[in-house]
Write a structure and sequence with these properties.
Elements (H helix, E strand, L loop, with lengths): L8 H9 L17 H4 L2 H17 L22 E3 L14 H5 L5 E7 L12 E9 L8 H5 L5 E3 L14 E2 L1 H14 L35
Antiparallel strand pairs: 1-4, 2-3, 3-5
């Protein structure tokens, strides 16, 4: 049997016209532009004024790159590297944490069981048979190194990354390990590698150089 209340047109109309207690949608209105704004005259005048101000100030604002290298902060997030452990092996344990945390889906790992007959791998259950990062897709957010439980992946301060093809910008395990070897040899370890108790952002602060900690903060942060 049908419900007589559902078929009552007067009650249904009253419910439709009843104002809701809370509105979750707000409609915005486009800003109104004046005639000058529509002609872009104020924007052009502002740009010309900025150019003239820089021309007469005498201060050099052009960076002479690549003749003059820029100063990169120690916690800069650049090209990735895969770290080695004390035995020279890849430090990654193929746990897929970095691949799962990556918001750009640029990391791809294929795990393989560690060889049980090799004494050098007796402390590992598995290792990455392949480890690739698409450097073109990466947004360099650093979430991979934050998610890694063994500090196997890090972002270095290398910023001048170029390639002639897309294939050259896909770093495999061997290339990522070579970045580690290069940065260690040149002494360009990321500040996160040797960070203290306060984290990477505090390593270049006065607190990390022996100054007293801020109020309410001890040595453990």
């Amino acid at each position: 049997m049908s419900d007589p209340q559902k078929n009552d047109p007067q009650k249904n109309e009253a419910q439709m016209n009843k104002p809701s207690a809370k509105k979750s949608v707000k409609w915005g209105e486009a800003p109104k532009m004046s005639i000058l704004d529509a002609l872009y005259l104020p924007a052009i005048a502002s740009g010309l004024a900025t150019a003239v101000r820089h021309a007469v100030s005498g201060k050099a604002t052009t960076r002479q790159y690549p003749e003059v290298e820029p100063e990169i902060p120690p916690n800069y997030r650049g090209v990735h590297r895969l770290n080695r452990d004390e035995a020279g092996r890849v430090k990654c344990v193929a746990c897929y944490m970095c691949q799962t945390a990556c918001p750009a889906n640029c990391i791809e790992i294929i795990a393989a069981p560690a060889p049980k007959d090799d004494p050098h791998w007796k402390d590992r259950d598995k290792f990455p048979a392949t480890f690739t990062i698409d450097e073109l897709r990466c947004i360099y957010c650093g979430m991979c190194e934050e998610a890694c439980p063994v500090d196997a992946i890090e972002l270095t301060s290398i910023y001048d990354l170029t390639g002639m093809t897309r294939e050259e910008m896909i770093f495999d395990k061997e290339k990522l390990l070579s970045v580690f070897d290069e940065t260690v040899k040149s002494g360009q370890d990321p500040v996160r590698t040797n960070r203290g108790n306060l984290g990477p952002a505090a390593e270049v602060s006065p607190t990390a150089k022996g100054a007293p900690p801020p109020p309410g903060r001890g040595k453990s942060g």
